[in-house]
Amino acid sequence: MRRSVPIWAVLVAVVAVARPGEALAQARRGRGLDESRLRTSPSARPSPPVAAKRDVVLPSDDATFRPTVVIRRGTSQGTGTIIATAADSSLVLTAAHVVQDSGPLVVELHRYNVGLEKSKGGVWPLVAPAEVAAIDESGDVAILRLREHSPLPFIARLYDDDPAGIAPGALVVSLGVDKGARVASWNTSLVEPARFRMAPGKDEKPFLITLKTPAHGRSGGGLFLADGRLIGVCVGHAEIFEGSRSGVFASLATARRLIHARGLDAEVARSQAAPPSPAAAAR
Questions:
Q1: Which of 148, 150, 178, 188 is nearest to 68 (CA)?
Q2: What's 178's domain CATH number?
Q3: In this model, does residue 41 exceed pLDDT 90?
Q4: Are residues 176 and 221 in contact, defined by beta-carbon separation less than 8 angstroms?
Q5: Is 226 inside a domain boundary?
Q6: 214 lies in which domain range?
């Protein structure tokens, strides 16, 4: 039975709380995990990894796994997805609540983001300062800009149409950095599109509901179709239907409106039109 309650009364955001001393970055591939042990100081300066293992890369990862990044601000940490890149800067899509804490805002780039899974040595992650280029708090989406380490070799491909038209039951894939520690993907299915107000007085915005609920740290991570096209952004989970909780993802439609409102259309379109750059170093 559908609950007739406002979404802000039941939504649980899934941003993780940063542990000040240590973070683990792991690329979950089933076999051949990248289990590089990484330390992050309060100033977000990384130290060299320890005991790195090689990772197995699948062709489908270029569209989902590789564009997935870690975002940190203050005591919160979440996930983001690279949606555009050029010589001078790159754009990352995430959830607005991931970046609402105070303090320096940074994006962490790991080996899988730049195709260096087989490389040895170096300082990882690459920590790039970021700024908020656009934000829609009522839709819980934000777009970040980072100017260091651009251009990046991998971006997510955006779904061309309104995700509200995707049939219920469609297979979808969620990417995220669970608890700020493990990059992981899981499959679920769409329940239905929905429209909610995220807070009293806010505009009603479109969201996508999934059967599976996300873990802490997955906030801001991408929701993809089986073919790798991005359709949504993880914002949390809620008791949409009485007696059970569901995943809640901001619709890509909200992000597209934000891109247009902030004059980022051309920047995104150029990246989407260009084929991904080859990862020269490490397949």
A1: 178
A2: 2.40.10.10
A3: no
A4: yes
A5: yes
A6: 158-258
pLDDT on residue 99: 95
Measured between alpha carbons, how far is 186 from 68 in angstroms, rounded to an integer? 14
Q: Is 263 helix (H, G, I), strand (E, B) or coil?
A: coil
The 3-state DSSP class for residue 147 equals coil
DSSP assignment letter at 15:
P
DSSP state of 202: P
Sign of the four-CA dihedral 109, 56, 182, 215 = positive
Reported pTM: 0.82
Is 221 contained in some domain? yes
Single-letter code of the amino acid located at 69: V
Is pLDDT above 60 for 9? Answer: no
- pLDDT exceeds 50 at position 34: no
Q: Which residue has the tokens 């609920």?
A: 213
Contacts of 67 (CB under 8 A, 6+ apart): 81, 82, 83, 113, 154, 155, 156, 222
Number of domains in the chain: 1
Mention every residue, 6+ apart, whose C-beta is less than 8 A from residue 280: 115
Evaluate the omega torsion of the peptide bond into residue 151 and state whether it is cis, within 30 degrees of 0. yes
Structure tokens that stand for 16 in this block: 């993780």
Cα–Cα distance for residue pair 283/279, rounded to 1 Å: 7
**pLDDT greater than 70 at residue 189:** yes
- Is residue 45 domain-resident? no
81 is a domain residue? no
Burial class (CB in 10 A: 0-12, 13-18, 19+), 257: middle
Which residue, among 172, 167, 160, 165, has the nearest Cα to 223 in the 3D structure? 172
Contact 159, 172 (CB under 8 A): no
